[in-house]
Design goal:
Blueprint lengths: L5 H11 L9 E5 L2 E4 L2 E5 L12 H14 L14 H14 L3 E5 L2 H12 L5 E5 L4 H10 L2 E5 L4 H10 L5 E6 L11 H11 L2 E5 L14 H5 L6 E6 L9 E5 L1 H10 L1 H4 L6 H15 L2 H17 L13 E7 L1 H13 L2 E2 L2 E2 L9 E6 L6 H14 L2
Parallel strand pairs: 3-12, 5-6, 5-7, 7-8, 8-9
Antiparallel strand pairs: 1-2, 2-3, 4-10, 9-10, 11-14, 13-14
Helix pairs in contact: 2-11, 3-11, 4-5, 6-7, 12-14
């Protein structure tokens, strides 16, 4: 059998285990409602927490950016692909999260894959939360440093591991808000350990930027952390409603990342029209306290309305995971909700541990109270 034909059997195994992933196609979007695979549904999947992705101000900024700069940047940032709009966006983002400087990356995956190898290498050590996002795991592996994973949010275990390490350079790596559980890392304690053991601390605030902290300034502002040993990764394709990512920190640290991060150096710069939209998004994030308050009210509504609230993981963020258990049960519940016009994704291994398949409910400022009521009623009806 040719090697490519074996893939058919492998795909059949994924089907049998309830692990095959399938895409749905959106052909029309209006706020929280979408036309997906030909049917109208309320979208409880998206990470557009502040409902900015289709905000008129972002659309206008992107159009004006295209008129002024064209579409492509034409080269890497370090050759001729760095425009005034990029510079303006980096300054706005640094100010919003309370850092001295920021550096734009094309994606969050590229930021995480580039920053860690720029800071540590062979003979050094990375200490990572076991539930970190895949991009953080891959960035750690690319660094070739010794990767040690501590139990989720277990600062006592991390303290022991740091004390046992003789690595010349150490790096603690964590998500701020964990994307499948919705809980927040103990960042104040992690920072105290970083200070005590003289380590770097890298915080991926993909799901916290725009949601946590005063005016959506993110996890550093939320916890009052300010130190040159901290690197902050912000993702722009979620609450900010645009695309891309940035790393922020002290001037000297960001300059070092610029010099050494291969995923920044060896790729074409993001379109300047996108940087124009990012500038507008930063302003909207800062001015969206009312949207954050609305999302908080929806979270309370969901958590108090379910017949079995104990199935929800502890989360004060827009990510509200409902544990179902088996893969087939999670898929069946998601399918039943979709039949009622409620689109909620079933998350299964390897994204989450075996036996913890779940519905990952994402709430946004676009959702109305009656839409959350409909979701609660349907879940209660199908989960007696």
């Amino acid at each position: 059998m040719p090697i490519w034909d074996r893939l058919g059997a492998d795909i059949a195994e994924l089907d049998a285990a309830g692990l095959r992933r399938r895409r749905r196609t959106i052909s029309e979007r209006q706020g929280s409602e979408v036309l997906v695979d030909g049917r109208r549904a309320i979208n409880f999947c998206a990470n557009d927490y502040l409902s900015l992705a289709d905000h008129p101000a972002l659309t206008a900024a992107a159009i004006e950016g295209a008129r002024h700069w064209g579409v492509g940047s034409g080269a890497s940032h370090l050759v001729s692909g760095h425009f005034a709009e990029h510079e303006a966006a980096e300054k706005k983002l640094a100010a919003l999260v309370g850092c001295e400087a920021a550096l734009l990356f094309s994606t969050g995956y590229m930021a995480n894959s580039g920053v860690m190898p720029a800071l540590v290498g062979r003979g050094d050590a990375i200490f990572a939360d076991r539930l970190n996002h895949a991009s953080l795991v891959d960035g750690a592996l690319l660094s070739r440093a010794d990767l040690r994973r501590y139990p989720h949010a277990d600062t006592a275990a991390l303290e022991r591991m740091l004390g046992e390490s003789s690595a010349p350079r150490k790096l603690i790596v964590t998500d701020s808000v964990f994307s499948m559980d919705g809980d927040i890392a103990p960042l104040r304690q992690l920072f105290e350990l970083a200070e005590r053991f003289d380590t770097w601390l890298l915080i991926d605030d993909a799901h916290g930027f725009g949601i946590l902290g005063p005016h959506g300034g993110g996890a550093l502002r939320h916890f009052g952390i300010d130190s040159p040993r901290v690197l902050y990764i912000g993702t722009l394709g979620k609450a900010a409603g645009v695309s891309g990512a940035f790393v922020a920190g002290a001037h000297q640290v960001v300059e070092w990342i610029l010099q050494k991060a291969r995923t920044y150096i060896f790729t074409t710069g993001s379109p300047p029209l996108l940087a124009a939209a990012i500038c507008a998004a930063a302003d909207l994030v800062e001015a969206s306290d009312d949207r954050r308050m609305h999302v908080a009210a929806l979270i309370r509504q969901l958590r108090t309305g379910l017949r079995h609230p104990e199935r929800l993981l502890a989360s004060d963020t827009p990510i509200q995971p409902l544990i179902v258990g088996s893969n087939t049960a999670a898929l069946a519940l998601a399918a039943a909700l979709f039949e009622e016009g409620l689109w909620v994704p079933a998350i299964r291994p390897p994204t989450v541990p075996q036996g913890s398949a779940r519905l990952r409910i994402s709430l946004s400022a676009a959702h109305r109270a009656d839409q959350v009521d409909a979701l609660v009623a349907a879940i209660n009806r199908h989960s007696p």
